[in-house]
Amino acid sequence: MVTSLHPLLAAEASAEAQASGAEPGDLEQAVWLRLLERLESEGPPSDPHRWLRSAVRTEARRTRRRVRNERPYGTEPAGVAEYAHEPERLALAAARHRALRDAVRRLPGRCPGLVEALLSPKDLTYREIAGELGISQGSLGPERSRCLGCLRRLLTPEVAAG
Predict the structure, then answer these.
(1) Which of 6, 39, 99, 150 is paired with 93 by a 20 to 30 Å CA distance?
(2) Residue environment code for 103-114, b if the CB has 16+ CB neighbours within 10 A, otherwise e
C-alpha cells in the first residue's frame, strides 16, 4: 500500500505545501503518521487514494492555522532575562534538563545516540552525526523525526503531570 500511495502523496503534498506554508516532506510525513495511526485504530481505509487526498488537505489546513496563530517573540519575554540567574529558575531549568536526559535514555533503538548528538554542545553537522552513528546522511532527517516523535510522546505525560 505504501508503494502504491507514495507517488500520489508526493504530488498532493507538493501541490498543497506552497499554500499552507509547509514543506512538502513535512506534509508527507504527517500524512504517513496519520495513516499509521488509522491502521492501528480503524484498519486500512476503504478508498486509500481518496483518504490520502483528504488527509493531505487536512494537514495543510492544520499547518495554515498553526502558522497563522503562532507569532515569534521579537525579544525575550518581559522579565525572563533579568531573573534568569535566580536559584529557583536555575533549579527548574536543571530539573527540566534532567527530565529530558532521562527521557532520551529511554528512547528505543538508535534514538538515544542520535538525540544526544543533536543536543551536543559541539553543534555537530548532519554529516558529522551520520558519521558518528554509522548511518547515511540521507536517513538522518527521517530518523531524527521519528526519534523526536518518540521523545515527544515520552515527555507528554511528564509535562502534563508537572
Answers:
(1) 150
(2) bbeebeeebbbb
